[in-house]
Amino acid sequence: MSENVGRWLGWIGIIVAVVGFFWQPIWMGAIAIVAGIVGLFSPQKKLNWVAIAAGVVALIIGIV
Q1: Which of 29, 30, 44, 64 could be disulfide-bonded to 58 (CB atoms 3.0-4.6 Å)?
Q2: What CA–CA distance (Å, rounded) separates 50 from 48?
Q3: What is the pTM of this model?
């Protein structure tokens, strides 16, 4: 996977997770986690780990 695709997946995951803090946290958190995991196959590791972490936080907010 190219570096640009990984960067886009990371940013999309972060944006979806932030939206998930306010609306549909379980679904948006899960989508952010999946986007981050798929993005881990690119050289952009840190950005995708941030997307995964934000998705987990959104998912926890939705569960609680």
Answers
A1: 29
A2: 5
A3: 0.86
